[in-house]
Design goal:
Structural class: mainly alpha
Number of strands: 0
Keywords: Membrane, Transmembrane, Transmembrane helix
Subcellular location: Membrane
Shape: elongated
Number of domains: 1
Helix content: over 70%
Protein name: Cornichon
InterPro entries: Cornichon, Cornichon_conserved
Oligomer: single chain
Distance between the termini: 4 Å
Pfam family, one: Cornichon
């Protein structure tokens, strides 16, 4: 068995796809949390305890901000191993990743105008249609990353066995 650059690219993609799976799971959990806690914070908290109202609002905003922090690393990781597939002439894997890479570029270029580099506007994310869209996007990405994980695993084994 010979260890080639293509095998290295598949190993890197396999490890980074596992990281992206965790990002997608967190994305789904965060938006599910926002969806199930879609209640008026004033109704949820007692007027006798203003600390709980402040904590609730702070919790929701920190959850949205944390999702903001995962957007650029997710896009960078996906573009990194897409570029590695281009450098190693693995055109099947490149074509497999190209639609999501194009979607990431399009999604980032058409994001709402904000001061932070995230994708979701904190003032409009609590709309039911925005939450459903964000949650559906998370499930689709999770399915894609799971499918690509097993595809990279198979491709890595195939490259390692066929190069001997």
């Amino acid at each position: 068995m010979a260890f080639t650059f293509a095998a290295f690219c598949y190993i890197v993609a396999l490890i980074l796809t596992a990281v992206l799976i965790f990002f997608a799971i967190f994305h789904i959990i965060a938006f599910d949390e926002l969806k199930t806690d879609y209640k008026n914070p004033i109704d949820q908290c007692s007027s006798l305890n203003p600390v709980s109202e402040t904590y609730y609002i702070y919790y929701m905003l920190s959850l949205i901000f944390f999702v903001f922090q995962l957007v650029l690393p997710e896009y960078f990781i996906h573009m990194l191993f897409t570029f590695l597939f281009l450098c190693s002439f693995q055109f099947g894997s490149l074509l497999f990743n190209l639609p999501l890479a194009v979607y990431h570029v399009h999604r980032y270029m058409t994001r709402p105008v904000m001061s932070s580099p995230g994708l979701y506007d904190p003032t409009s994310i609590m709309n039911a249609d925005q939450l459903n869209r964000a949650q559906k996007e998370g499930w689709i990405k999770l399915a894609f990353y799971l499918l690509s994980f097993f595809y990279y695993l198979y491709s890595m084994i195939y490259v390692l066995v066929s190069s001997s």
